[in-house]
Amino acid sequence: MDGFSKDKRWNLQGMTALVTGGTKGIGYAIVEELAGLGARVHTCSRTITELNDCLLEWKAKGFRVTGSVCDVSNQAQREKLLNAVSSEFNGKLNVLIFQS
User: Fold this and answer.
1) How far is the CA of 57 from the CAs of 3, 36, 77, in angstroms?
2) Cα radius of gyration rounded to whole Å, the chain
3) Residues of the chain with pLDDT under 70
4) Nearest 5°: phi and psi at 51?
5) Does residue 1 form part of some domain?
6) What is the pLDDT at residue 1?
7) Which one of 2, 72, 91, 97 is separated from 17 by 20 to 30 angstroms, measured CA to CA?
8) Which family does it belong to (predicted)?
9) Does residue 3 form part of some domain?
C-alpha cells in the first residue's frame, strides 16, 4: 500500500450521481460508497416505503442523498426522474449507474 487512506485517494466532493435501484443490494452499496466519498447522490425505488427508510438511514449517516419513486421500465417515469435529477443537481450529472 502506498500509505494513502481511501479518503485521500478517492474524493467525490462536488460530484453528483444518479443510482437507479439504490435501495437494495448492489445499488444500495453503490449509493453508500458514492455518498461516503462525498458525492451528492439521487436514487430511486419503485416503493416509497423502502425509499423513505433508506433516505432516513443515509441522512443519519450525514450523507447527501435524495430520492424519487420511479419504475425505470416506464418511459414516462424515467423522464420524470431525469427532470427531477436535472433540477436537483442544476443540470450537472457526473455519474450514472443504471440498473433495471
Assistant:
1) 31, 13, 25
2) 14
3) 1-9
4) -60, -50
5) no
6) 43
7) 2
8) Belongs to the short-chain dehydrogenases/reductases (SDR) family. SDR65C subfamily.
9) no
Range of the domain at 76: 13-97
Can you give the pTM of this predicted structure?
Answer: 0.89
What are φ and ψ of residue 17, in 5° steps? Answer: -145, 145
Q: Which residues contact 78 (CB under 8 A, 6 or more apart)?
A: 70, 72
Residue located via cell numbers 450514472: 96
**Is the distance from CB of 46 to CB of 39 less than 8 angstroms?**
no
Question: How many domains, in total, are found in the chain?
Answer: 1
Q: Which residues of 69-96 are buried (b: 16+ CB within 10 A; e: fewer)?
A: bbeeeeeebbeebeebbeebbeeebeee
What is the DSSP secondary structure assignment for residue 90, as one 8-state letter? Answer: T
Q: What is the pLDDT of residue 8?
A: 63
